[in-house]
Amino acid sequence: MSRTTYPLALERWRASQPIFVTDEASQRLCAVPVDFLLRSSAPPCEFLSRIVEMCVAEEGSLFDRHGNSLLQSSQLSEGPLLWKRQDGSNQACTFKRGPRFKYARRAPVEGEDSSTMSNSKRSSQNQNAFRESLLVRDGSCLLTDRRYTTCTAAHILPQSRPEYYEEVMGYDPGYLFLPQYGFLVSDELHHAFDRGEWAFWPEGENLVVHFLYPQNESLRPLHGKVIPPERFRGEAAEHPRRDLLLFHYQQCVHKYFRGFSADLSGD
After folding, report:
1. Which CA distances in Å does 87 have to 52, 58, 60, 62, 172?
2. What's the pTM?
3. Which of 1, 4, 46, 181 lies 20 to 30 angstroms, CA to CA, from 237?
């Protein structure tokens, strides 16, 4: 099956040392800039392991080129890292399905303006109620605090793909216009989110902004910004759902850290 390829995050983090992770079959699993990891408000070795887990189906652990485990390490090793499968096999790992944005079984096209097709600007009774609920909860752009009049009420996952919500949540939620399914963000950042260029990483009680592929250099300083739960008004149950945010994050990882699609066919 043919793969759709994407520019790696390394292209936008050129001044950073890259870390390449391979399996024991010499298959590259991901490529991650060191600066991205160090500025992500998460333990770098543990976080890198999470990234690999998003890319492949087989559980495992990271080792450096000298055969030392990075499990308990707080510092990243120089040179390529090895992902050893927990099952002891040295066979090639299986890549997880993705990235999935606008289409469930079609890889997104690089350069699309809004690959998730969230239709968040469309006027409807449901969308208007969705926007009002996010205005009350968020007040302004979560990342820049820009005035709400320049913001979009964005869905975390495409409103056009309710099956994603069912896959993540374990049931069909039906109504997708509750505040926990979205967030308020400036129009520019909304399109970048839809393209998978940035995402929210749940870290403890906080959400951390991660720019995997910052096309606009002026947005790079937002990488690592911490959004505490106090930033949101209202009940915790109405805050952005972390399971949905993690699904979106995984698709971003597939696109810009793995760099290609897997297990997708046209629909």
Report:
1. 16, 8, 8, 14, 34
2. 0.93
3. 46
Q: What is the pLDDT of residues 77-121, one digit of tens each?
A: 777 999 999 999 999 999 999 999 987 677 777 766 544 445 455
Distance CA 212, CA 253 (A): 8
CA nearest neighbour of 255 among 49, 9, 2: 9
Q: pLDDT by residue (tens digit) across 9-56?
A: 999 998 889 999 999 999 999 999 999 999 998 889 999 999 999 999
